[in-house]
Design goal:
Helices cover about 30% and strands about 15% of the residues. The strands form two sheets. A three-stranded antiparallel beta sheet has the order 1-2-3. A two-stranded antiparallel sheet has the order 4-5.
Length: about 100
C-alpha cells in the first residue's frame, strides 16, 4: 500500500488507515457520530464497527479491498439496498437501531 499523508497530519500507516476508512464524497454511506457503525444516507445501519473489524482481521497479511466494496457486499448479503428499501421491509434491531 502506498504511503499517503492525510489532511489530519497523519502519515504512514495511520494515514493509510484514515484514507481507507473515509467514504468518498459521492458515497451513499457514512460513519455514525461515535464511529460505531456505518450508516446509509437515511441513517439505517449497514454494519457495526465490531463486525467490520472481524472482516478486516482476515486481511492481516494483505491490504483489504476498498471499504465501499465491503459495504456494498455486506449490504447485498444482508439483503438491504439502502434508502430505497421501504421501512416495513427492514428488520428491527434489539438496540433500537434500524438495521438492514
Amino acid at each position: 500500500m502506498n504511503t499517503v499523508v492525510s489532511k489530519t497530519g497523519f502519515s504512514g500507516e495511520m494515514a493509510n488507515a484514515a484514507a481507507w476508512l473515509t467514504p468518498a464524497m459521492e458515497a451513499d454511506w457514512h460513519w455514525d457520530l461515535d464511529g460505531g457503525a456505518i450508516l446509509w444516507e437515511d441513517d439505517t445501519t449497514v454494519v457495526m464497527a465490531e463486525e467490520l473489524a472481524l472482516i478486516c482481521e482476515r486481511y492481516h497479511h494483505e491490504p483489504p479491498p476498498p471499504l465501499s466494496a465491503i459495504v456494498s457486499a455486506l449490504a447485498m448479503l444482508k439483503g438491504c439496498r439502502g434508502p430505497s428499501i421501504p421501512q416495513a421491509q427492514r428488520r428491527p434491531h434489539p438496540t433500537g437501531r434500524q438495521i438492514c
